[in-house]
Design brief:
- The chain is mostly beta strands.
- It contains no helices and 13 strands.
- The chain has one domain: Porin.
- The strands form 2 sheets. Strands 1-2-3-5-6-8-9-12 form an 8-stranded antiparallel barrel. A two-stranded antiparallel sheet has the order 10-11.
Length: 212
């Protein structure tokens, strides 16, 4: 009689391979810088005429299909001569603005944005000449009204550079008319507009700082 075979070994269960975790898709946002230069002009009334000058911009933002950006802007106008009544004066204005841009892409290379913010105008007024013997020029002085700002922007990009054309409004919270003293009273020579339209053409370098 043949010896009975021993118990058969059961086949080992095949190990199931661990399911690989799918990589998380990026959200499609890029962190980018903003370093730019621009030329700005505004109109504050016929007495002062067109004010214009260069400026610089520094900012940072998040960009996807839409974007949000914070910018700090500094501008310096070329001096202008105020000629009103018996007195002439040179006026030089420096201004800074803190702005927030909210925008959306129109195409791969164009975007539309709205910017809002606030800042300060610092105007240095230097009386230079008097055409009336009874009027004596005063000492130079400085006006620094707080200003609200809003603008619409069209931006065009050729990575990593961006061009922007903006039209906007400045609204000083304090009016600063230009007066002269004549004896016991004062005479107003000029009063800038309460709402001042303007335009800005800017070019910026926008390096990508990261994405997520």
């Amino acid at each position: 009689m043949a010896a009975s075979a021993g118990p058969k070994a059961l086949p080992a269960a095949e190990a199931k391979p661990a399911r690989a975790r799918a990589p998380r898709a990026p959200l499609g946002w890029a962190l980018e810088g903003w370093l730019g230069a621009h030329y700005a002009a505004d109109w504050s009334g016929s007495a002062l005429g067109l004010r214009q000058g260069p400026g610089v911009e520094l900012g940072i933002g998040l960009r996807g299909r839409a974007f949000v950006r914070a910018r700090l802007v500094f501008e310096r106008d070329f001096p202008i001569t105020l000629q009103a009544g018996p007195l002439d004066a040179n006026v030089t204005t420096e201004r800074w603005r803190g702005l927030v841009d909210l925008g959306t892409a129109l195409s791969a290379h164009q975007a539309l944005a709205l910017s809002v913010g606030a800042g300060e105008d610092s105007s240095y007024i230097e009386p230079t000449a008097s055409h009336d013997a009874l009027v004596v020029p005063a000492a130079p002085f400085r006006e620094t009204p707080f200003v609200l700002h809003a603008e619409g922007r069209l931006e065009m990009s050729v990575a990593p550079f961006r061009l922007a054309l903006a039209v906007g409004l400045d609204v000083p919270l304090v009016q600063t008319p230009y007066d002269i003293d004549r004896g016991a009273g004062a005479k107003q020579l000029a009063s800038p507009w309460a709402v001042r339209p303007g335009a800005v053409l800017s070019a910026a370098w926008c390096p990508r700082l990261g994405s997520f």
